[in-house]
Amino acid sequence: MWFDDAVIYQIYPLGLCGAPLKNEGPDPEHPHRILRLLDWVDHIKDLGATCVLFNPLFESDAHGYDTRDYNRVDCRLGTNQDFKQVCDALHAAGLKVMLDGVFNHVGRGFWAFQDVKANRHGSRYKDWFHISFDGNNEFGDGFWYEGWEGCNDLVKLNLQNPEVKNYLFDAVRGWVREYGIDGLRLDVAYCLDLGFLAELRALTDGLKPEFALMGETLHGDYNRWMNDRACHSVTNYECYKGLYSSFNSGNMHEIAYSLNRQFGSEPWCLYTGKHLLNFVDNHDVTRIATILADKNCLRPIYGLLFGMPGTPAVYYGSEWGVQGDKKDGDPALRPEIALPEHNALTEWIAALAGARSASPALRNGSYRNVMVQPKQLIFERRCGDDRVLVALNADSETYHADFNAEAGRAVDLITGDVHDFGGGSDLPPYSCMFWKTE
Question: Residue 164 CA to chain centroid, in angstroms?
Answer without folding.
Answer: 26
